[in-house]
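Standup, Tuesday
Yesterday: got the pipeline producing structure tokens again.
Today: sanity-check two examples.
Blockers: none.

Example 1:
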Amino acid sequence: MRRNHPDPLSGSAFQPPGAPHRGAPGFIPRTVRSSPFTQERSITKPTGPSGTNHVKLAEFCRFGGTAVVTYREIRYEAEGPLALVTINRPEKHNAISLATLRELQESVAAAAEHDNIKVIAITGAGGRAFASGSDLSEVLDRDLHKALEPIVQGLAEQLERTPKPTIAAIDGFCMGGGLEVALGCDLRIATPRSQFATPEGKLGIIPGGGATARLPRLVGRAWAMEMMLMGEPIDAKTALSIGLVTRLVEPEELIAQVRRMADHLASFAPFVPRTMKAMVHFGMEASMAGALMFEKYAQGALVQTEDKHEGITAFLGKRKPVFKGR
């Protein structure tokens, strides 16, 4: 019976779907993916057939424990326990293109593989938008539009299934496909000037990147219907009141807050955030009986770890625990 449940300690329940496979255009080899945490400076440019939107790794550099990777449409920064992925199209209000999605998938997959990284956060450059939605120039193209929405779904699912906690740090517009990416994250924090909307109905389409399923699960049927049927933006205070976001932070403090959250999560025993995430996602889809059975199984696995003993011993001894992930 237990074999039917995902293993909360192995992380096997969270294999990111949709990430480029070996041999596919845009695939980043393991040696390159691991290089942000080596002593080497590396530059590589994965390329695909001419005229297609494949990821090109334009620059990679490492300075004293900080890794910065600039892709064509995103920026990846790894510092301490946090991988910060920035959608970097401010001139287009961070509209999400097919290339943006592929780069996001690759960066999330790379961060998920590194033991150094404990938390993955996504934000938008420029201070005006997290992501204003899908790139309408691609939505107009039927073939590109058909390719776009399954990848938005795949990215949101990848963020859900990645064992590490994920945070959407929202400043400004969070619309359409951008909101659907944020919905895939475990936590969403925003600035007071942020706005949220699912305006696809005004364009003759419906949300196709997972909002019809995730939004009602998060904010309830009534507010999901309000947002999708009316298509009008809601402000940050409303988003906070309905549970779409959990914190409001001033713009100049947004990334600092993300780093504080990452440091806090990194202080936990490594199995704990992974197991909590596994249980919540499983519980959302399972019956109450099934969810409680999984909880019992997961807790039974955790109580046998050295970290559990260390955590309780440290608490009783009034000292900070030293967790080892075993």
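Example 2:
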Amino acid sequence: MEYRTKDGDVVDDICYRQYGRSGYALQVYELNPGLAEYGPRLPAGLIIQLPEISKPETPELPKISLFD
């Protein structure tokens, strides 16, 4: 998946917006050699590759009622 950066984007924030958590930054840097050279805040207009990560299934929780 491709992502075009906006001025001031941070890899952790991009991961959080795309995947719901920021723990995938290392995979983003591995897919994009040289990305770290821009520093923590990325300039606008870079096209970076994001890893294909499937979201884990959320288990269905039992329903509880306050009034039986």
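Quick observation on example 2: The helical segments are 11-19, 25-31. The chain has a mean pLDDT of 89.
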